[in-house]
């Protein structure tokens, strides 16, 4: 397909996503299935165009004075990819599956691409209804925070200490242009190429051998800062597919007990294979038999650490899921806050006297971060917040510089602050 035909295809897919309110991945998959002529490179390029257009949906619509899928794609070419109007006009020839010619109005908007009069939420590409909440998380630079969250994400891996080390992994993956992570001693980063994609790491021998896992550096950092120690009894209460379980097992050097469970037993399924690859031997997966069944009744009040990687809006991962940003609804935030209170209450029963809960979200919204911790502390008088300085000192690494990202109860990481996904961590401790 020509570059111009790919743009037409992206407009078509975006139309499907917006009109039918479909997840981008579903719309892209369907498009690919019904257009067998499109090769893998075409599909990848179209997906990147669609995701880039979603990243800048609000600002493109404003600058173009039009929120049609065509305007969003054309606006993104100017706003995100920095293309001149003339270059875009050349692509829009109206011939051979290329988009129709630019109108005079479109050409003018592409030349000026003027966001000077745009409200902050538009310049930041954050949904307007979420703006007050988002802005409350950041005293300054709030527009820049939104813009960083509307950018492309790198691909990070966590080198598995049980099987390898970072120097060896850097050598083994040298052909892919690896960079050392800035914060986590286990992190290696791969920047996205001009096509917006990172290398396909899941085909590397090291991946099959369990030498590394794909995991955002922010996710690695909050796990490091949870304070898990070799020999501890640790519970990963919202383990899902086990990204943090695997990181915890490596931190614990396979010493002590690590229980992994989740409300949704199906989510735990991939963890079996991942554990086998990783060489982790101290993990016990506890599958709940039905809703309401407590799969951890035998370890009540025994945990040194309960890790709560809570269900949340996922607003910290909008770089990776730009369509989720526009699909999240006000009711969803209220529901997640309820889930968070429920899961924290469950964690409280599992912590031993003197034990901790590490509360984590991949969110940038204070209601589900400090707000959730405040609500928990209000209902659980036996728990007290652990000061951030103490959390940073206990983590396995040199993290003192992160102190400037402290919130009332925890730490807020973000693409613009730490060049990671937006993660929040706060620790609370049960009185002895
Ligand atoms: C952010 S995801 C976990 C991701 C996972 N820890 C990882 O690192 O790959 C949140 C998980 O919490 C689970 N969950 C929701 N409510 C829960 C509850 N009350 N108890 C335990 N898990 C819950 C969801 O099923 C979901 O898998």
Structural overview:
The chain has 2 domains: 3-117, no CATH class; 119-432, 3-Layer(aba) Sandwich (Rossmann fold). The mean pLDDT is 95. The chain is α/β, with parallel strands linked by helices and 432 residues long. The longest helix has 21 residues, at 330-350. It has 20 helices and 12 strands. 45% of the residues are buried. Residues 237-244, 262-264, 267, 309, 311, 339, 342-343, 346 line the site of S-adenosylmethionine (SAM). S-adenosylmethionine is lined by residues 237-244, 262-264, 267, 309, 311, 339, 342-343, 346. Belongs to the class I-like SAM-binding methyltransferase superfamily. RsmB/NOP family. Keywords: Methyltransferase, RNA-binding, S-adenosyl-L-methionine, Transferase. GO terms for molecular function: RNA binding; RNA methyltransferase activity. S-adenosyl-L-methionine binds at residues 262, 309. The active site is at 362 (nucleophile).
Anisotropy-based shape: globular
> What percentage of residues falls in helices of 4 or more residues?
40-55%
- Proportion of residues in β-strands: 5-15%
- Main beta sheet: 8 strands, mixed
Q: Name the CATH homologous superfamily of the largest domain.
A: Vaccinia Virus protein VP39
Q: How many beta-strand segments? A: 12
**Ligand identities:** S-adenosylmethionine
How many discrete structural domains? 2
The CATH topology of the largest domain turns out to be Rossmann fold
Number of helices: 20
State the distance separating the first and last CA atoms: 66 Å
Q: Give the second-level CATH assignment, the architecture of the largest domain.
A: 3-Layer(aba) Sandwich
Radius of gyration computed on alpha carbons: 23 Å
């Amino acid at each position: 397909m020509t570059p111009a035909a790919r743009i037409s295809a992206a407009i078509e897919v975006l139309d499907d996503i917006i009109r039918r309110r479909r997840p981008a991945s579903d719309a892209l998959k369907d498009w690919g299935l019904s257009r067998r002529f499109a090769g893998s490179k075409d599909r990848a390029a179209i997906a990147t165009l669609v995701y880039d257009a979603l990243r800048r949906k609000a600002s493109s619509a404003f600058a173009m004075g039009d929120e049609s899928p065509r305007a969003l794609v054309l606006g993104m070419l100017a706003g995100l990819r920095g293309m001149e109007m003339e270059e875009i006009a050349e692509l829009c020839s109206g011939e051979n599956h290329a988009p129709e010619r630019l109108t005079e109005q479109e050409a003018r908007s592409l030349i000026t691409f003027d966001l000077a009069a745009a409200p902050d939420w538009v310049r930041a590409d954050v949904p307007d209804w979420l703006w007050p909440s988002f802005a409350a998380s950041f005293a300054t630079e709030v527009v820049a925070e939104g813009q960083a969250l509307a950018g492309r994400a790198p691909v990070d891996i966590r080198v598995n200490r049980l099987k390898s080390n970072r120097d060896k992994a850097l050598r083994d993956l040298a052909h892919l242009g690896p960079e050392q992570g800035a914060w986590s001693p286990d992190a290696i980063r791969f920047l996205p190429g001009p096509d917006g994609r990172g290398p396909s790491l899941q085909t590397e021998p090291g991946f099959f051998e369990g030498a590394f896992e794909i995991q955002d550096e922010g996710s690695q950092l909050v796990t490091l800062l949870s304070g898990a120690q070799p020999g501890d009894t640790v519970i990963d209460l919202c383990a899902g597919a086990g990204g943090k379980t695997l990181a915890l097992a490596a931190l614990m050097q396979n010493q002590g007990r690590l229980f992994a469970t989740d409300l949704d037993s199906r989510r735990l399924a991939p963890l079996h294979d991942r554990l086998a690859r990783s060489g982790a031997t101290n993990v016990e997966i506890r599958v709940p038999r039905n809703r309401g069944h407590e799969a951890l009744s035998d370890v009540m009040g025994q945990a040194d650490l309960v890790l709560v990687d809570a269900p949340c809006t996922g607003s910290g991962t909008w770089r990776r899921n730009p369509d989720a940003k526009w699909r999240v609804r006000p009711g969803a935030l209220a529901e997640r806050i309820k889930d968070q209170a429920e899961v924290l209450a469950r964690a409280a029963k599992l912590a031993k006297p003197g034990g901790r809960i590490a509360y984590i979200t991949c969110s940038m919204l204070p209601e589900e971060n400090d707000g959730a911790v405040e609500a928990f502390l209000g209902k659980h008088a036996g728990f007290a917040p652990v000061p951030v300085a103490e959390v940073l000192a206990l983590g396995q690494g040199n993290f003192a510089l992160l102190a400037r990202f402290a919130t009332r109860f925890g730490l807020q990481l973000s693409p613009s602050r730490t060049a990671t996904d937006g993660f929040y961590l706060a620790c609370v401790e049960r009185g002895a």
